[in-house]
């Protein structure tokens, strides 16, 4: 969801200022910033200054430098960085920063950008804010946007704009703003998909329908396999790439040492994987909500070649289509809303699966390995402890006759 802007308006009668909502703030058009998708802005958006030479002037070397630079970041990272660049140029437009000062950007400019980006002034500050609009983001987002501006500089041939010392100075200021504004806004934790929600979703689906069969295969695999939703879907129909996305050939079925069925999904690329590293997602039988059955049903309803997307469907014209992330989430949320359950997010299945496993006393190390976490970072995903706390801690005093 795009950020929403506002401006503080003072009345001629001298009454207290009021906050006027503006919706997403528009970016001023510029030939330096063509209207391209967010994941293309890092390389398509230019500056007016000429960067220093970074290689010898040989076309072969320059070609290697260009393709290496473009391959350095994942698509999901490029999308986030594109949003950061937009926010930076929005700030520069509002404060009339000339193009010559945007690339390369000074410490003073980037420090000021972060102050504006995070600040959410109150009506009492209207005399200071004047006609300046605001579109506040979190401190965490501001740090990511600084990373985006750094990447933009490097992609355009400039050195990184901030030293570690300068970045620390900005972090000091942002920490103070976070304390000031912690009571003004907070982002609620992403809700988990529960086992009952998963069952309700399945009961609402027609598993003989190609689209709905694909939805169920994604939902059950994401929950039981602790998958990021983006690992089972694509950003858009044209973004599918067998080098980075799961194909039918990446789904392998077998039996373990106890003779029980399992599936292994070989993920060609992942957020936490090194270049060329394949990560494995493991799925086992799960009674009526079984991901193995869901995958086999999908293969039956939507037959496809080995290099076709694993999670795909066929439209009424017979076209084979990978499942788009936003389409899948909108469909699932439509079903959940219709049942009065609420709204879910991309990570809600991964969060829900981890929460469920831990509530059933599955060894945390097993959960860590299944979720492909390199540390105890999975703990930040546990959102449903209050639902199972009594199983672990209730009535312990009774052991002592109290």
Output the keywords:
hpI Integrase, Chain A, two-stranded antiparallel ribbon, mainly alpha, DNA polymerase, domain 1, three-stranded antiparallel β-sheet, 2 domains, 41% helix, 15 helices, 402 residues, 7 strands
Question: Could you outline the blueprint of secondary structure elements for this entry?
Answer:
Layout: E1 5-9, E2 18-23, H1 41-44, H2 59-70, H3 75-94, H4 107-118, H5 126-129, H6 139-155, H7 164-181, H8 195-203, H9 210-224, H10 229-232, E3 251-255, E4 261-267, E5 279-284, H11 291-301, E6 312-314, E7 320-322, H12 325-338, H13 348-359, H14 364-370, H15 389-393
Antiparallel strand pairs: 1-2, 3-4, 4-5, 6-7
Helix pairs in contact: 3-6, 4-6, 4-7, 9-11, 9-13
Organism: Trametes cubensis
GO molecular function, one term: DNA binding
Keywords: DNA recombination, DNA-binding
Overall morphology: globular
Largest sheet: 3 strands, antiparallel
* SSE arrangement, N to C: EEHHHHHHHHHHEEEHEEHHHH
Backbone CA Rg: 25 Å
Structural class: mainly alpha
Helix count, DSSP H or I runs of 4 or more residues: 15
Number of strands: 7
The CATH topology of the largest domain comes to hpI Integrase, Chain A
Give start-end ranges of low-pLDDT stretches: none
Trace the largest sheet across and list its strands. Answer: 3-4-5
